[in-house]
Amino acid sequence: MGLGKYITARVAWAGIVSLVIVTIAFILMHFAPNPAIQQAATDAALQGNDPQEAIERAEELRGLDRPIHVQYLDFLQNVYTLNWGWSEYRSQPVPQALLEGLYYSAQYSVPWTILTLLIGPLVGVYSAINMYSWKDHLATGFAFFGFAIPNFFFGIILLLVFAIWLGWVPVIYNPDVAVFSLENIRQLILPVFVLVTGSIGGIMRVSRNESAEFLNADFMKTAKAKGVSPMRAYAYHVMRPTMVPLSTTVVGQLLAIFLGSSVLVEVVFGIPGLGRLTFNALINQDTNLVLGSLLVFTFIGVVGNLIEDLVFTILDPRISYDDR
After folding, report:
1. Domain ranges of the chain
2. Using CB atoms within 10 A of its CB, is residue 77 exposed (0-12), middle (13-18) or buried (19+)?
3. Under a CB-based contact definition with an 8 Å cutoff, are residues 308 and 248 in contact?
4. For residue 238, which of 109, 85, 129, 146 has the smallest C-alpha distance?
5. Complete DSSP assignment for 248-313
6. What is the separation, in whole angstroms, between the first and last Cα of the chain?
């Protein structure tokens, strides 16, 4: 199997995974109580009408009285054509609400991801070069501090110090400022710092352990004997092979933090992003918006894992596609 066929197979598998997750979401939604139908029954009972008739009428209006396979096919068509319904909480179509939330989430997610991918491996290699020295202990301690402290608690402490006490950053997020402006940098620097410190710990440890194996390898001794500068030797003969195993963990760790911590960080800092939108949709029992958020996070996870597989395959030319 060549590289082209392998990529095609991985893309097809990603499509199958997304279909399975969408199917599970449909089953859960089908058997879960529908708040709109329950509200219709309650209103009918309060008005002295028959609640059962109100339930049947509400189900007929929403197409829930049709056979389950028909509902499932319509559900698939709506999902893959982005016809995700109307958000009662936001009073707008669900895709539009999700795009607006994703717009604000991307403003801190993009710099956070870039800084994590740059700082994490570099700190790991630096720590391996100075292994068991005070520099190694300092770098390891900083990485584990960010990894151990809860993001929402760290964010509250930073807001208290830098926003309330010192007044260096705004307390309340302002969504009306320009994206590429100094004011937007000031209000996003704390959430980006919180996420970066929380994500470089695992990446740094993997990078440190992997690069330590290459520092005393024969090819490093040969490079030093030929007079290659230390910076060039570390960049070409340590960093490059370290990125191969690191690529199998970095995407998963970043996705886990994005899916889990985005809600907490956005709630703490008042960012109207995708995480806070999902949180408010759950509080307001907006079924369509909750389902749409679930699908967005699902597709991000599937695409992220697909990119991880492809990057690992491209970085390591020793991989045999026949066995995968």
Report:
1. 3-88, 93-323
2. exposed
3. yes
4. 129
5. HHHHHHHHHHHHHHHHHHHHHHT--SHHHHHHHHHHTT-HHHHHHHHHHHHHHHHHHHHHHHHHHH
6. 9
Q: How many whole angstroms separate alpha carbon 20 and alpha carbon 15?
A: 9
Sequential DSSP letters for 173-241: --TTS-SSSHHHHHHHHHHHHHHHHHHHHHHHHHHHHHHHHHHTSHHHHHHHHTT--HHHHIIIIIIHH
- The CA distance from 91 to 197, in Å, is 37
What's the confidence (pLDDT) of residue 1?
A: 55
Q: For residues 122 and 124, what is the distance between their CA atoms, to the nearest angstrom?
A: 5
Secondary structure of 234-253 as H, E, C letters: HHHHHHHHHHHHHHHHHHHH
Q: Are 201 and 144 in contact (CB under 8 A)?
A: yes
**Does residue 155 contact residue 190 with C-beta atoms inside 8 Å?**
yes
Query: Which residues in the chain land under pLDDT 50?
Result: none
Q: For 6-50, write each residue's pLDDT tens digit.
A: 778 877 887 888 888 888 878 887 777 777 777 777 877 777 777
What homologous superfamily does CATH list for 93-323? MetI-like (1.10.3720.10)
Contacts of 32 (CB under 8 A, 6+ apart): none
